[in-house]
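User: I'm preparing a small set of examples for a lab meeting where we compare how different chains pack in three dimensions. I only have the primary sequence for this one, and I'd like the structure in C-alpha cell form so I can line it up with the others. Please keep the answer compact; I'll paste it straight into my notes.
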Amino acid sequence: MCSVLKVSRSSYYRWFSGGPSNRSIENSLFTDLIKEVFELSSQTYGSPRPESFARIGEAIAEQLKRKGYKISKREVAKLMLVNGWRSKLKKRFKVTTDSNHRYPVCSNYLNRNFTPKSLNEVWVSDITYIRTAAGW
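Assistant: Understood. Below is the C-alpha cell output for the 136-residue chain.
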C-alpha cells in the first residue's frame, strides 16, 4: 500500500499509530462548545449568510472568551461553516397598512356576525392590491 500511496513505510506507520492530532482534538472540543452556545442563543448567534465570514463568529467567540477559552472569531466562523450552522433570524415585522388616508372607507355590514341564517345571505372575499401607473 505504501508504494501505491507513494509514502515511506515509516511515515505510514507513524500516521497509523499516531492517533488524532492536537488540532483535531481541539476542533472537536470547540465544536461542542460552539454548538452549546449556538443552541443557547436559540440559533441567533452567527451570520445568516455564509458570505459575510468576518462577523460570523464574533458573538460566540466573545461568549467563549468569557468562559475562559481562547479562540478567534475566524476559527469559530470556520467551524460553524464546516458544520453548516447559520443564524436563523426572523424577518422584521413591516407595517403595510396605511390607516391615515383620504379614501372612503366601506361600511361594516357583517359586524362580526359570522353565522348567517341561510345560504347566499353573506359573501366575503379578500382584497388584492394591484399597483398601476396611477398608484395602488
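A couple of notes for your slides: The chain is about 40% helix and 0% strand. The helical segments are 2-5, 9-18, 22-40, 58-66, 73-83.

User: Perfect, thanks.
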